[in-house]
Amino acid sequence: SQKIEQNSEALNIQEGKTATLTCNYTNYSPAYLQWYRQDPGRGPVFLLLIRENEKEKRKERLKVTFDTTLKQSLFHITASQPADSATYLCALDIASTLTFGKGTMLLVSP
Amino acid sequence: KAGVTQTPRYLIKTRGQQVTLSCSPISGHRSVSWYQQTPGQGLQFLFEYFSETQRNKGNFPGRFSGRQFSNSRSEMNVSTLELGDSALYLCASSWPTSGLDGGEQFFGPGTRLTVL
User: Could you tell me how many CB contacts below 8 A there are between chain A and chain B?
Assistant: First the structure.
């Protein structure tokens, strides 16, 4: 069955550094992959979408890569700020259903 | 534009009862999806409605059902509540015709359901 894996342990980094989060998947070739941010007690907020024929996508301080051979997406936040602290979820289109990973919590300390 | 709204925001029920949750999508959005979020399982897809028709359904028992009205508003119902149904229920809408063609999902704030 399809598995989507994100680091379950929180990622702690210092302000100003680059945060890198990983999303690995198995047994499927999704047409696209999305990244969302979720703050406690709130619904997820869409950040970026990358399609299978795209290697990299950027939006301000965010960068996403998509390696369909490795079945992996990397999500980077450059010059991280304490306000970037949140849980980040990746989501894949699997059989016409958006399937989410469990998310990785990012903690940026001043 | 107003965002996705969900009512109620918090709900406490007892085992065996039933519950109905409501979702109003962003104006113009025709697709509404429902998700259940728990600490252990994460965000799990329940079902998706488009133009009043259920297009996709997740792996949940028949106690979970939903519907969509002509104005795209959606409701989900859970009958015979169990303790394990305690969760944050999120609804998401998307534009223009499908939430599953790569378009972003706009999530509501969720309904926190506690089953005692």
Answer: 56
Instruction: Give dist(CA B47, CA A90) in Å, integer.
Output: 19
* Per-residue pLDDT, B96: 56
The B-side interface with A (CB below 8 A) comprises: 4, 33, 35, 41-45, 48, 55-56, 58, 90, 92, 99-100, 102, 104-110
- Picking from B114, B113, B74, the residue whose alpha carbon sits closest to that of residue B94 is B74
- pLDDT tens digit sequence for A80-90: 999 999 999 99
Other CB atoms within 10 Å distance of the CB of residue B98: 15
Q: Using an 8 Å Cβ cutoff, are B16 and B79 in contact?
A: no
pLDDT at residue B70, rounded to an integer = 95
Distance from CA of B100 to the nearest CA of A (A): 6
pLDDT tens for each residue of B23-77: 999 998 888 999 999 988 999 999 999 989 998 899 999 999 999 999 999 999 9
Query: What is the token pair recorded at B7?
Result: 């009512």
Q: Which pLDDT does position B99 carry in this prediction? A: 47
- Whether B33 and B45 have beta carbons less than 8 Å apart is answered as yes
Please, are residues B93 and B73 in contact by the beta-carbon 8 Å criterion? no
Residue among A1, A35, A66, A98 with most chain B CBs within 10 A, to mutate: A98
Coil vs helix vs strand at B83: helix
Decide: helix, strand or coil at residue A82: helix
**Mean pLDDT value of segment B7-20:** 98
